[in-house]
């Protein structure tokens, strides 16, 4: 029990039973957590929406949500093929329906065969359905031009955020002045500051340059220690991390969003590998992807993955143990991840419709892969603009850092 004697005695004198869990006795790290994406402003927005529904007169008729990347909440329609595969997996009797295309049925049957009891309602193994992890590995190989990917290094997750927090848990240690420091970009996605507060790590800020399309300057990283846009900048970050003994975390959830002519997505893993030795064999990296962002916008199904590169084998076993405590990521999210990363081929009946609504397909641009972190405009405009990258990393103690692959 966590009770203070003075509080207990005062409560007894007043004839009251003291609460066991209070603000004074709870974990102080939780109290330091701030998550603006769903903070007081969002709560006030919910109140305003409720008042509008009740007919309360306001000088406006709707609340526009610009606090979070939730495409379908803003009216984007789900992509038919993705939902067809999911519906067939959730309710296999639909496999007999003529209303579903054959390629969606084949995809669903293949996934169900890999599930315990051939049912999506069964737990998967903690790292995710083996078949889907193999499909993720093949996707990464297509994306990175044939660079090998091992399914054993891939962990499916409840969205990318879940995987990011898992890796941060492995990195954070120490107390007081020896606490782990984590390098994050400013402006930043609030997940990082919230997770670091909860884990009692030190947030070490580095600043992106808005005048240069939110570019990252390695000199600024060095200043912070004592987003990434171009391939050259990614290489510079990798060299910096290698020289300083840092662990890289690459948040690449917007890798499908490349719109500038002549641009392509460069993953940290691809650049790391092509840089050769010693980086390819020694630089530690965790890269993240999700079905929540990009063209699919399936935020509510919470599907994602992390791939680890050059992670110590014993640490990877500890990561597997940490994932096991959570049993498994939601199986519907795993199904959507598989459908997103293995889109219809040109010979499939769903190809034309899928490509029309998504601009993607295995016969299309980049084998279904294109993009960088954020919607990349050719040049920034004055006023309020968005940083194109988000990163997390750690510095201090054993020292780690993070970065974000970008379009160039």
TrEMBL record:
It catalyses: L-alanine + 2-oxoglutarate = pyruvate + L-glutamate. Residues 357-408 are annotated as: Disordered. Its cofactor is pyridoxal 5'-phosphate. GO terms for cellular component: cytoplasm; extracellular space. The keyword Transport does not apply. One of its GO terms (biological process) is L-alanine catabolic process. Residues 394-408 have a biased composition (Gly residues). Catalyzes the reversible transamination between alanine and 2-oxoglutarate to form pyruvate and glutamate. Participates in cellular nitrogen metabolism and also in liver gluconeogenesis starting with precursors transported from skeletal muscles. Belongs to the class-I pyridoxal-phosphate-dependent aminotransferase family. Alanine aminotransferase subfamily. This is Alanine aminotransferase 1.
């Amino acid at each position: 029990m966590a009770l203070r004697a003075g509080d207990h005695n005062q409560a007894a004198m007043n004839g009251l039973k003291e609460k066991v869990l209070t603000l004074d006795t709870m974990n102080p790290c939780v109290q330091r957590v701030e998550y603006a994406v769903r903070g007081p402003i969002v709560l006030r927005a919910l109140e305003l929406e409720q008042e509008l529904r009740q007919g309360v007169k306001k000088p406006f008729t709707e609340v526009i949500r610009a606090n979070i990347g939730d495409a379908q909440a803003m009216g984007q329609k789900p992509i038919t093929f993705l939902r067809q595969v999911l519906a067939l997996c959730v309710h296999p009797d639909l496999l007999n329906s003529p209303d579903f295309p054959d390629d969606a049925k084949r995809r669903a049957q293949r996934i169900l065969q890999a599930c315990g009891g051939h049912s999506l309602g069964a737990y998967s193994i903690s790292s995710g359905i083996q078949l889907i992890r193999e499909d993720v590995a093949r996707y990464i190989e297509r994306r990175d031009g044939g660079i090998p990917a091992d399914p054993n290094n891939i962990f499916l997750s409840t969205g990318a955020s879940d995987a990011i927090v898992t890796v941060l848990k492995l990195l954070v240690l120490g107390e007081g002045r020896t606490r782990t420091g984590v390098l994050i970009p400013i402006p930043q996605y609030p997940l990082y500051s919230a997770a670091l507060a909860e884990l009692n790590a030190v947030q070490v800020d580095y600043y992106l340059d808005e005048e240069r399309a939110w570019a990252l300057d390695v000199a600024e990283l060095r200043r912070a220690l004592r987003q990434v846009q171009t391939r050259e900048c990614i290489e510079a970050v990798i060299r910096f991390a290698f020289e300083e003994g840092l662990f890289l975390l690459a948040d690449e959830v917007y890798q499908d969003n490349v719109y500038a002519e002549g641009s392509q997505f460069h993953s940290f893993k691809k650049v790391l590998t092509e840089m050769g030795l010693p980086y390819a064999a020694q630089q530690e990296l965790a890269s993240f992807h999700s079905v929540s962002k990009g063209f699919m916008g399936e935020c509510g199904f919470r599907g994602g993955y992390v791939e680890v590169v050059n992670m110590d084998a014993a640490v990877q076993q500890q990561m597997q143990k940490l994932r096991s405590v959570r049993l498994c990521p939601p199986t519907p999210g795993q199904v959507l991840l598989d459908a997103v990363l293995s889109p219809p081929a040109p010979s499939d009946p769903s190809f034309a419709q899928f490509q029309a609504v998504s601009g993607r397909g295995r016969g299309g641009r980049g084998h279904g892969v294109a993009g960088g972190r954020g919607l990349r405009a050719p040049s920034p405009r004055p006023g309020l603009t968005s940083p194109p990258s988000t990163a997390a990393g750690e510095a201090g103690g054993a020292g780690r850092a993070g970065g974000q692959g970008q379009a160039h």
